[in-house]
Amino acid sequence: MADNGEILLRVDDVSLQFGGLKALSNVSFAVRKGGLFSLIGPNGAGKTSMLNCISGRYRPTSGNLTWNGEDILRHSVNDRAHLGIGRTFQNLALFGHMSVLDNILVGRHHKLRNNFLTGMLYWVGGARREELEQRRFVEDIIDFLEIQHVRHEPAGTLSYGLRKRVELARAMAIEPRLILLDEPMAGMNLEEKEDMARFIIALREEFEMTILMIEHDMGVVMDLSDQVAVLDFGKVIASGAPEAVLANEHVKKAYLGEADELLDELADTAERAIA
């Protein structure tokens, strides 16, 4: 659960524009330390653009992003990883030809202390010891995500569900305080979703990570989230506790372009939660 209401990340009036296209318009919300905040909305609502602004891939046209009260807009993607912001991607961004183990080790790059000169003395200096330390850390993540049996397989040969786990493992490898999950369960079957939900719960409870998640499965959003914000055409149309947000009439209308059954699911889920 969230830790005493302390704000870890604050988004204030963030707007993002590409030429004449406004992807985000004065978006504001706050993610509490130790919480799970879900960002939902129809396709094209600006959810991934928001994560790209937080992680540093995009620079907002206007607005502010504060991390523990510090402005992070001047920080690069790598700087934000050092601060403790990690992420996964909606479209998998693994190195397909590399092994699972090596893909995850990429996430440890910013933790390396040795430089070129100490690397030249690999066998007599500290570089070899450091590599062993990093590999032990990564092996613990592999065990946690139950992917021991594929650790030496090329990532590109794995099933979609396993590749999703590998990408989560790489994000975990930076030891983030905040992890951004972009549709972690998209394309998964029921069993794979249940496994991923179990891992996400453990990220909070065992690893003490704060989570900001984009997810379309309303059952998952209701079950896992503390707070929810809904984006539609780049604007926040509702935010708050999951059951209240999903019962909001404006939220239901925002999903009209998706599917009638999604509207029914939103209504039924919210009514059950309130009851």
Which structural class is indicated by helix and strand composition?
alpha/beta
Strand numbers in spatial order across the main sheet? 6-7-8-3-9-10
The second-level CATH architecture of the largest domain is 3-Layer(aba) Sandwich
- Low-pLDDT regions: 114-123
GO cellular component, one term: plasma membrane
GO molecular function, one term: ATP hydrolysis activity
Pfam families: ABC_tran (PF00005), BCA_ABC_TP_C (PF12399)
Domain ABC transporter: 9-258
Account of the 3D structure:
The chain is α/β, with parallel strands linked by helices and 275 residues long. It folds into 2 domains: 1-84 and 176-275, Rossmann fold, CATH 3.40.50.300; 95-175, no CATH class. It is built from 11 helices and 10 strands. The protein has helices spanning 47-55, 77-83, 100-106, 116-120, 127-144, 160-172, 190-205, 218-224, 242-246, 249-254, 260-274; strands spanning 7-18, 21-32, 36-40, 62-67, 70-71, 85-87, 178-182, 210-214, 227-232, 235-240. The strands form 2 sheets. It has a 6-stranded mixed β-sheet with strand order 6-7-8-3-9-10, sandwiched between helices. A 4-stranded antiparallel β-sheet has the order 2-1-4-5, covered by helices on one side. Strand 7 (178-182), helix 7 and strand 8 form a beta-alpha-beta unit. Helix 3 packs parallel to helix 6 (160-172). It is globular and about 50 Å long. The protein starts with 6 loop residues before the first strand and ends with a helix. Residues 114-123 have low confidence and may be disordered.
